[in-house]
Amino acid sequence: xxxxxxxxxxxxxxxLESWMQFDTxxxxxxxxxxxxxxxxxxxxxxxGNSISFEQFKLAMEYLVSVGKxxxxxxxxxxEIIDNLARKGEIISSYLCDTEA
Length: 100
Hints:
This protein is mainly alpha-helical.
């Protein structure tokens, strides 16, 4: 159990795939930001607001490993996944902190 919730990585990856399936998923283009936020919203609805950095990271790495997203240079890929997993965790923390 990570972050107080059991989330199957493949199930979380399925929610993130709607965003990561686009070649530009790793950019800060406003459409990619919108798809990222909608994917997170879908994940939070399904699994609750407590999703950890590690869960986000493993789900994104899973999508890369099974060829569901475009390949990037390994060093860049690690950095971008870490940054986006951290962003997902920050949003998760905010939602948990502001739950009524």
